[in-house]
Specification:
Length: 499
């Protein structure tokens, strides 16, 4: 007798994102080491379990030879079998050549769209050169999106839901619908969508909007980002905005907000793991007698790391009694290291940290511990758990899941979250956090003072608000809501056509 397979039906989901959840580094001709990728998108999707998912994306590495490509595809399959999350069936790599990566990823995505969507404007140095390279970078962007579409089409089966992610793949919905008009296509943006006045400065503004509108459902983290997108479509394209979305010649693209979350259980469970407990003991011993402040960010200009450190310096200047009683641990995960702006930022941060440690350090203690690397999951959970005050002071941020991860790990300590009003998370955790304008260093310094002196009752009340939110609005729920809305949208559209 064989036990019948009674697993519930799980919808097949093709997740398409520029980056796979594991990134590869070549160790030998056919050997690879694989690491979990950094960033909010991967953290969130790690929590999604309801679907039978395949993830299509770039492995972060250039693999020109076929033998290497075969070996990497196999290594990815094995890594997934180790199953760090239940439902991911396969990781399917998209191979991009060096020139495309340079022009599409370093250029159009990270030098143009990323800063623009975070209100940092278009590159301004040499306008003429930028305009010329803009054309070729946009061509590479479209070509890369077409390459992603070809891989999706190869793996697509009727009934699949195709979920495209982020600013790298704004052209993808259009490419996919050209392959198959009936494909169910959703697109979700993990960054802010800026005011239409910002978007309209982009030379390819209309082409990108039209390409996104080919999707059936378009999602954003917040209602404001969705509203900005609809305004861009009405003002720049002259289309009609409705409460449901954007209408173009009788066809509706549904537009809505789907605030992301994390797999909070994964963090809460980790706190009981003996290795994490051991880390917690070590950290408490290491920083005994000092309050611990924590920043965890990719080393990116949108994260406001220099501004945060300058605010901490101001706090030390104004509060000599806190010297040697407080320490700032700043974990700065290197990212996009081939883009010159990111290289400049690294040197800038090192310079400021060195100056402040020279100024306020003693022979036995320094005020800032700055690490240029990521921590493994268990070390990170331990750090979150021992923190008294977390500083999330992004200049702009789509959502910011570090703030969620911190809250999930704080049910014992009930530490304080200082949070930028320009992070999407301010809309969900604003009532529990101390909200700040990260550009106002005096205000951030004052909020550090407020956080370090906050009464236990007040901390408890604020933490409770945030903890309830973080544990009730999970990544799982986010994904289920988006996919079910996408299914409904397609069915409704079919009904409309039949009527
Ligand atoms: C943000 C983006 C993600 C991206 C991540 C890491 O969270 O929204 O799409 O994957 O940053 O950046 P990277 O360029 O290393 O993929």
């Amino acid at each position: 007798w064989e036990r019948p397979d009674v697993r519930p039906f799980r919808q097949r989901l093709l997740v398409v994102a520029n980056r796979l959840p594991v990134s590869a580094v070549r160790r030998g001709e056919e050997s690879w080491s694989l690491e979990i990728s950094a960033g909010g998108l991967v953290s969130a999707l790690l929590g999604v379990k309801e679907f039978e998912a395949r993830w299509i994306g770039w492995a972060g590495v250039n693999v020109p030879d076929e033998a290497g490509q075969r070996a990497l595809t196999k290594a990815l399959a094995e890594k997934i079998r180790e199953a760090f999350y239940d439902s991911l069936q396969r990781c399917i790599p998209v191979f991009l050549d060096e020139d495309i990566v340079h022009q599409y990823y370093n250029g159009y995505c990270n030098n143009i769209l990323w800063p623009l969507f975070h209100y940092l404007g278009l590159p301004q140095e040499d306008r003429l050169a930028t305009t010329r390279s803009f054309q070729s970078q946009f061509a590479a962007y479209k070509k890369a999106n077409q390459m992603f579409a070809a891989v999706v089409n190869e793996h697509y089966e009727e009934g699949d839901v195709v979920w495209c992610h982020d600013y790298h793949l704004m052209f993808l919905p259009k490419c996919l619908k050209e392959y198959n008009r009936k494909m169910k296509v959703g697109w979700f943006l993990h960054t802010p969508f800026p005011s239409s006045e910002i978007h309209r400065t982009l030379p390819s503004r209309s082409e990108l909007l039209h390409a996104v509108l080919a999707a059936d459902l378009v999602g954003f983290h917040t209602y404001d980002y969705a509203r900005h997108f609809v305004s861009a479509c009405t003002r720049i394209l002259g289309l009609e905005g409705t409460p449901e979305g954007v209408e173009d010649q009788g066809r509706l693209t549904r537009v809505a907000a789907f605030p992301i979350g994390i797999d909070s259980e994964r963090f809460i469970r980790a706190l009981d793991v003996p290795q994490v407990q051991e880390h917690i003991r070590e950290l408490k011993e290491r920083f005994a007698g000092r309050k611990v402040m924590l920043g965890v960010d990719r080393l990116d200009m949108i994260k406001g790391i220099p501004q945060k450190i300058l605010a901490f310096e101001k706090f030390l200047e104004e509060n000599p009694s806190w010297h040697e009683k407080v320490v700032l641990l700043q974990i700065a995960v290197p990212t996009r290291t081939d883009v010159p702006e990111y290289q400049k930022l690294t040197s800038q941060v090192h310079e400021i940290v060195g100056r402040i440690n020279g100024r306020f350090g003693t022979l036995t203690a320094v005020p800032i511990h700055h690490l240029d690397r990521s921590l493994d999951f268990h070390a990170l959970c331990a750090l979150y758990a021992v923190t008294d005050v977390a500083l999330v002071t992004s200049l702009r941020d789509g959502m910011n899941l570090v703030s969620y991860e911190f809250v999930a790990c704080q049910d014992a300590k009930k530490g304080v979250l200082i949070l930028s009003e320009f992070a999407g998370a301010a809309q969900s955790l604003g009532a529990g956090a101390i909200l700040v304008n990260p550009w106002n260093i005096t205000e951030v310094a004052a909020s550090i003072d407020q956080a370090l002196n906050m009464s236990a009752e007040e901390r408890e009340k604020r933490h409770q608000h945030n903890f309830v939110h973080v544990t009730n609005h999970t990544a799982q729920e986010w994904a289920e809501t988006f996919v079910s809305e996408l299914n409904d949208t397609v069915v409704e559209a079919q009904l409309r056509i039949r009527q």
